[in-house]
Amino acid sequence: MCLYTITKLINITGYIVKEIICMTAKEIRIRIEAEEGNPAICSECGEVHHEGYHSSKEMVAEGLRLGERRLFLHVLKRRYRCPKVKGIRTEAIPWIEMGSRVTKAYAKEINRLTAITTNEEAGWYLGLDDEKIYRIDKAMLEEQASKKLNPPPASANISVDEVSYRKHHRYLTNVIDVDKKLLIWNEKGRRTEVLDKYYEAIGEDNCQRIESVALDGAKTYISSSKKYAVNALIVLDRFHTTQKINQTVDRVRKDELAKARKNREEEIIHLTNCKQRFVLLKKKNRLTDRQSFTLKRLCEINEPIYKAMLLKESFLQVYECKDIKEAEEHLNDWIKQATESSLEAFKELSESIKEKAQYILNWFKKRTSSAISEGFNNKIKRLKRMAYGYKDIEYFKLKIHQHCGLLNPRRFAT
Fold this sequence. Notes:
Layout: H1 3-10, E1 15-23, E2 27-34, E3 40-42, E4 48-49, E5 53-66, E6 69-82, E7 87-92, H2 104-114, H3 119-126, H4 130-148, E8 157-166, E9 170-177, E10 182-188, H5 192-202, H6 204-209, E11 212-215, H7 219-228, E12 233-236, H8 238-263, H9 266-272, H10 277-281, H11 289-301, H12 303-316, H13 324-340, H14 344-355, H15 357-361, H16 371-386, H17 393-404
Helix pairs in contact: 2-4, 3-4, 4-17, 5-7, 8-9, 8-12, 11-12, 13-14, 16-17
């Protein structure tokens, strides 16, 4: 293969191949030099130096493979006396990734590969140490984030939710663009001040343009949204309210299971064990014949669970109302029923729903949902499991944007 052909293949503007140093079945090493007339850009002041040449220093950078061979480029970096800093400085080479000894084209390829697999697997495939993969990938993501996520994108309709990134109640707050179905911002923690950072970052004008904020009912998120998104409709969506109802029903099941075990009531133990919990959580029209029979028998022999199921079905009827007025009347009736019931779990839930009744009714004005946030949470958890966790939380935040947001190379060409 002639040197001219290799020069065209590697396609580095302003540089030509001078010689092939060695070539084996696994790698090829070539020496390249700057073409005559190609100026040297000072790494310190950023200006072109034509005079003051001092010496040259060889460095090795890995580039995109040639066929099945790894490509190593031996390049002479020129050194000049910089009149501004009054010292000798090495030229900056724009096509080499800073501090990584790989070309920018190769760094981009690494970044694309880590978007679909783990750093360890990418390192094995490319023949690189996974620590080097991590440093290159993080540098690339930080560069992309500075362009696309600073300041964070504003959206008319957003969904806010948290996801656990580590044990012992360590959370990330995520903001989703509901219209574009993209994660646009995340930060460590779930306190009021955390979400405040997002609203402050997008600015007062963009905050006033927000039309709706879908959330799970967390007081911290409600407080922040009321303070900044003054024109937005805060919606406690159907997904999360149904989820809370199911959690309350399951709490009643656990209480009754504990009582049955204490009293050695074998039939109730059999019908309320954890394998049967989905019978209580599923909608009636989705139950199989066997599950319907189990639920009917359980309601016959256990009054608290029977009451819990009645309260659950009654609450779900709120979303079948024709308009907000009818829904409000039905919800007030349900709160009264739950408060007067003998079930402590539903009494506590009724107090919470009473406080947030307006946000539940807002669903009839703007039928938005934060269920999309739960979908992203599942992706984030999968990402965490693939990597067996992340020690660097800032890198993890960037990886989330790479898989779920604007840094995804499969959705946005870079």
